[in-house]
């Protein structure tokens, strides 16, 4: 099974992530309601089993918690993928959500990179600073060892824009991690 349990404890956060790339239960608790909603959507739309328990210094703000969840989730993806052989490797997806349209493309390459293009219409959604969306995706991509391109094409409501983006990332990843049985999809014979 393609699973991983990863933990990270610092003076700012205490995080545990349990990931199953092939499905399972979803339980998310970070202390940031909108972020929990986005992570739950990510798991459901990616077809992933995902449990996240995070405690952080929310009295400061959500930055440390959001970024560190991205780090730990990225490490879980990297471990669950193993040597990355026999997967589709690439995936891309558009998601519309009401007035918003978002796109994501992923290469599970072993070469971490993030392209993030979004200009959210509001600075906050509930207790979540919208600028933390980029911080989360950067931490995730770097620690998962993936190339991730994301773009919110348009929208008027930051909740819709971010949710469409997270669902697009999840669907792109779902396609990329699909097992093909075809060996390593690389002309070099390795990924990275």
Automatic annotation (TrEMBL):
CDD domains registered for this protein in UniProt: IGPD
Keywords, comma-separated and alphabetical: Amino-acid biosynthesis, Cytoplasm, Histidine biosynthesis, Lyase
Pfam families for the chain: IGPD
Cellular compartments annotated: Cytoplasm
Source species: Caproiciproducens galactitolivorans
Metabolic or biological pathway, per its Swiss-Prot or TrEMBL entry: Amino-acid biosynthesis; L-histidine biosynthesis; L-histidine from 5-phospho-alpha-D-ribose 1-diphosphate: step 6/9
Broad EC category: lyase
Catalysed reactions, semicolon-separated: D-erythro-1-(imidazol-4-yl)glycerol 3-phosphate = 3-(imidazol-4-yl)-2-oxopropyl phosphate + H2O
Alphabetized PROSITE patterns for the sequence: IGP_DEHYDRATASE_1 (PS00954), IGP_DEHYDRATASE_2 (PS00955)
Phylogenetic classification of the source organism: Bacteria, Bacillati, Bacillota, Clostridia, Eubacteriales
Record's protein name: Imidazoleglycerol-phosphate dehydratase
């Amino acid at each position: 099974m393609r699973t991983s349990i990863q933990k990270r404890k610092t003076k700012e956060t205490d995080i545990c992530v349990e990931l199953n790339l092939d499905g399972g239960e979803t339980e998310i608790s970070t202390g940031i309601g909108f972020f929990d909603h986005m992570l739950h959507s990510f798991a459901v739309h990616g077809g992933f089993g995902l449990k996240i328990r995070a405690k952080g210094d929310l009295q400061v703000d959500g930055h440390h918690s959001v970024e560190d969840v991205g780090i730990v989730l990225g490490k879980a993806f990297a471990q669950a993928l193993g040597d990355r052989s026999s997967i589709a490797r690439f995936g891309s997806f558009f998601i519309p959500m009401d007035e918003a349209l978002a796109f994501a493309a992923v290469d599970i390459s072993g070469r971490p990179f993030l392209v993030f293009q979004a200009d959210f219409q509001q600075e906050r959604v509930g207790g979540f600073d919208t600028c933390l969306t980029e911080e989360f995706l950067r931490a995730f991509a770097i620690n998962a060892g993936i190339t991730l391109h994301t773009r919110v094409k348009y929208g008027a409501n930051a909740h819709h824009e971010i949710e469409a983006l997270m669902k697009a990332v999840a669907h792109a990843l779902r396609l990329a991690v699909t097992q093909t049985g075809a060996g390593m999809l690389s002309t070099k014979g390795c990924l990275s």
